[in-house]
Amino acid sequence: MEIDTMQRLIEGFKRFRDGEYPERIPLFQELATKQEPGTLFVTCSDSRVVPEFITQSEPGDMFVIRNAGNIIPSFGPHHGGVSATVEYAVAVLGVADIVVCGHSDCGAMTAIADGADLSTLPAVSSWLHHADAAKAINDAHVHSCKSGKVAGMVRENVIAQLANLRTHPSVALALSEGRVRLHGWVYDIGEGSIEAYDASSGRFVDLIDYPETDATALNLVS
Amino acid sequence: MEIDTMQRLIEGFKRFRDGEYPERIPLFQELATKQEPGTLFVTCSDSRVVPEFITQSEPGDMFVIRNAGNIIPSFGPHHGGVSATVEYAVAVLGVADIVVCGHSDCGAMTAIADGADLSTLPAVSSWLHHADAAKAINDAHVHSCKSGKVAGMVRENVIAQLANLRTHPSVALALSEGRVRLHGWVYDIGEGSIEAYDASSGRFVDLIDYPETDATALNLVS
Amino acid sequence: MEIDTMQRLIEGFKRFRDGEYPERIPLFQELATKQEPGTLFVTCSDSRVVPEFITQSEPGDMFVIRNAGNIIPSFGPHHGGVSATVEYAVAVLGVADIVVCGHSDCGAMTAIADGADLSTLPAVSSWLHHADAAKAINDAHVHSCKSGKVAGMVRENVIAQLANLRTHPSVALALSEGRVRLHGWVYDIGEGSIEAYDASSGRFVDLIDYPETDATALNLVS
Amino acid sequence: MEIDTMQRLIEGFKRFRDGEYPERIPLFQELATKQEPGTLFVTCSDSRVVPEFITQSEPGDMFVIRNAGNIIPSFGPHHGGVSATVEYAVAVLGVADIVVCGHSDCGAMTAIADGADLSTLPAVSSWLHHADAAKAINDAHVHSCKSGKVAGMVRENVIAQLANLRTHPSVALALSEGRVRLHGWVYDIGEGSIEAYDASSGRFVDLIDYPETDATALNLVS
Amino acid sequence: MEIDTMQRLIEGFKRFRDGEYPERIPLFQELATKQEPGTLFVTCSDSRVVPEFITQSEPGDMFVIRNAGNIIPSFGPHHGGVSATVEYAVAVLGVADIVVCGHSDCGAMTAIADGADLSTLPAVSSWLHHADAAKAINDAHVHSCKSGKVAGMVRENVIAQLANLRTHPSVALALSEGRVRLHGWVYDIGEGSIEAYDASSGRFVDLIDYPETDATALNLVS
Amino acid sequence: MEIDTMQRLIEGFKRFRDGEYPERIPLFQELATKQEPGTLFVTCSDSRVVPEFITQSEPGDMFVIRNAGNIIPSFGPHHGGVSATVEYAVAVLGVADIVVCGHSDCGAMTAIADGADLSTLPAVSSWLHHADAAKAINDAHVHSCKSGKVAGMVRENVIAQLANLRTHPSVALALSEGRVRLHGWVYDIGEGSIEAYDASSGRFVDLIDYPETDATALNLVS
Ligand SMILES: [Zn+2]
Ligand SMILES: [Zn+2]
Ligand SMILES: [Zn+2]
Ligand SMILES: [Zn+2]
Ligand SMILES: [Zn+2]
Ligand SMILES: [Zn+2]
């Protein structure tokens, strides 16, 4: 059965190699020696969230960070992989937009919202503390049901990670110079929809209805 | 121009929503409340490396970690995002395969191979120390040209990250019980090809020619 | 000569004990077992900046953090003294206002603005990285003179520390519930004046002229 | 009500600006461009402990560190704000005396002595571990009452922070050259009194009765 | 009685000085200005495990690391004493062999195997997390008795520390160049015997019967 | 040649097994299930410094920590192996004496005294910062020759590590209760002699002449 997983992956790669690749040889040859992505897309490692698929992006379009919970630790003296990758995307590649994209049914956010016992998962437990600000706010709200609490956690987490993002020197500089815009999205897997955080109203709105919505001007008191 | 980046992304999402999504409603409804990925795929944030595209995977197939340099810090008391995400993938989701996938023309590996001055990129500089073992080995080799040195660095980095991966308790346990297999890949952007690390010979071979190749049984002295 | 320093301190304490203390016995007896400060005041350790003196506050009025550069590290897994003290002030004492107060001629900010060699001061050098976002922005501005660059650094640092402050869970929660307001001040030692950061315009204004000015609603793009 | 807190602060600043400042214009103009404090004063953030007031010091006299519990982490590879500020005070400003001043009814020391549940205050909980040595010693003593245990904790903490202080290179060097003296004080808020740690006897004595008392020559076995 | 401990030590030193030393003056004079040890020996601090005694080594033969549990943290950005000492032994002294030697009745391994409450030993508790991979594997095995579980833990710990060792750049480089060999030993105090880890079979065998056994070629799936 | 190193070790073990072990069977059988060492001995990993040999100790007598430079990091929130091992020795085993033993021609202390370029040895470089206090003091002294500077560094390092040791809660508690005594030694490899730090005079004296010398009562100003 395990064989199947890898067989399927390798069969997929053969289809890519025999189908998609030949159709894009000029693109791939151009990309062979340079990338100029316009966007940094930060999302969860969740297998159901495929950023290039849901945005129908081509190779070369988006620089992507993926980890459990689409978390961006705030800037500090102990630089981890997210800090390094944000720094590279903004200071070296000069991306114009940063999207922080959470999603429905997120395992990480569910664990936080449920107050799950994470004692056997010490690394997960430690990592999710980067969402403590979101948790504090979400826990203080009244939720009518458990799934509402998870949904709230997903949204508060996106907002909290945007606040963390602003502490990174490369981002703070680019924001001060108007070179980058921030976006906070929540992708619904079952519905195929995206809500975007509207910083001016402090609310999430449908991305298709409000394509200009962004989170650049953080307004925490609506 | 910046507007175009996001406009394109949002246009892409509309195509997804109006095209891809309706075709897969049963899949997405099933995925709405659970994921059962068979593979953990760790690759670079590079915009040219789209793991689901090159393996033609569907949503739900692969749990994905992406950061600059496809780095997996070894396990230690200070858990970062990669450690947490590996722990979640192996201990909670029970993935059967872990692929560490480097790629040609990697900016992170080029910076290391070239000994680039990273003083203005402190987070990148710090993060790339997790590839110090690979750098030490690659620097000790004779390289006929600069691109050969980068290519060597990409390969040594994949091997070094596999060694780091083995220090994670969830991985060590799964390996000891034969529940997980490790794979070390290098994807060539321009060629559309993949080489896989063959642990028994200590060499990289063409994945299509040798689809059974894996890196589970680490043999550092061939 | 050193004796004089302590002699003066102890003489001062005698004057307090024989003069100020007897005048305030009811206050001190009330304070003996409880404090209810309304404000958390974060300022530099600089000997010329005496927060209670410049605000003519009484004992019991202000909870005070003082360190080199009035720095507030962003929230992360390695909690230091500032994080702990902010947490105590907001979550336990329930302060209603937080003032981050920089000052003219700040040694810490001058060292950053001048790019001083701090190799013999490793702890100072490390600590000042918490002002990297401010430094990046200030360095990108054109300054007509050296003192203008220091003054700019002092101001950008106040703004950056306010961004760091927002990543602390206790602060983020209190902000979301409207329980706390933020203030960014710069005190001029020679002039005896205070400028306050006006978040709506992104400018510093005279505190006496605009006593309602605050930094709660962060607006980074004016 | 919250308005009142800030109004009072700003009213206080106006009184300073219209009263205290004009009386000291020559002092403030001299201070505008330099400071030469003789003392580094480390005390708690507690609103009831105003170091310049209880020593009747003038602006420019004392370099001040304030945090919850007047804690000085020992020197190590992860430099925090206290280490940086001590380094600046001793190595750059060349202070001749360092006073570590605890106080009665300290919230931080009470939490330790009482074994308070700090699970909702993770940063406080972590920070107070820097007083573990003091806690171990105080817990081993027999205390007749709860307030006696807190008082003991306050005193042991001052002694422990003096031991931590000695591990800082700048302090160790200055001590070895006789350039700095250490002082351990406990300020009683209700009584308006100060006790000083006498290193030769290992006891706290009344500062006014024994103004020469100091903690420079640490004698841990009396 | 405490006096006796030191008296015995000093009496021992006198015997060394009057007996062993004069017999080896040429050796000690040669060693006075240089060392060329062939082996790095990593073992527990346990008083019953004397590496030079059980191997009948002379001064100058073995570079020795000793800590509770013969632990070698994996390589990471926060370098501790073991990392530094390994680096010095391999990169500067050029040792040809590294022995990681556990032992019977190890207090550290017993604490892990028993799931002892280490809440009053925070540093021990934290340190032993470097054996989490070994613990995970050993806990998953069925043990017929408590001492069997401890014995299993001792063995798994040796294997896990060898995996950690491979992440160190100096070791990875030396392994890749065939300049160093790894050895995993378990010393039985009561029996006076040593078992060695045979990487090819994944088993521990008697060292005297199989003196060529080594752990260089790590084969985790036998 | 590498074979010889291990062959010699294994030959040595055979001599132990056939000679020393049978002579001590009763001791080893008693030791098989418990240890009661009276002393914690902290010394350098240097192959020429064999603590049990120079003190002619038997198995079971001394709990031993060995690392490059006989360094004891001060107590802090990030517990390493030395902190854990000290904690175990003092709090669990209840050792009565702690010896910190430096030695002549120490490679670590020579690197510090010479200001050696350690850029290719990052872990060593980082570790040796725990001797910064000693370095600061030694650098401030006038040394007639290079070897005098190294000898001074060795001595100042022993004193500095004793100061670090006092910050550990287990040690501070044991000192306060008179349950442990501290000793600072310097072993001369070529001479076979030991000097001990006399805390009352602040000087090192010959251990054989002054066997009662100890470092318990730290007196930094003689
Ligand atoms: Zn998720
Ligand atoms: Zn890359
Ligand atoms: Zn300042
Ligand atoms: Zn207090
Ligand atoms: Zn042991
Ligand atoms: Zn040494």
From TrEMBL, chains A, B, C, D, E, F:
Matches recorded under CDD domains: beta_CA_cladeB (cd00884)
Binding site for Zn(2+): C44, D46, H103, C106
Catalysis performed (reactions): hydrogencarbonate + H(+) = CO2 + H2O
Enzyme class of the recorded protein, top EC level: lyase
Keyword Zinc assigned: yes
GO biological process: carbon utilization
Keywords: Lyase, Metal-binding, Zinc
Cofactor dependence: Zn(2+)
Superkingdom, natural source: Bacteria
InterPro entries membership: Beta_CA_cladeB, Carbonic_anhydrase, Carbonic_anhydrase_CS, Carbonic_anhydrase_sf
MF terms in GO: carbonate dehydratase activity; zinc ion binding
Cofactor, free-text remark: Binds 1 zinc ion per subunit.
EC number(s) from the headed UniProt entry: 4.2.1.1
Family statement drawn from the similarity comment of this UniProt entry: Belongs to the beta-class carbonic anhydrase family.
Job of this protein: Reversible hydration of carbon dioxide.
PANTHER family named in the record: CARBONIC ANHYDRASE, CARBONIC ANHYDRASE 1
Annotated protein name in UniProt: Carbonic anhydrase
Protein source organism: Novosphingobium sediminicola
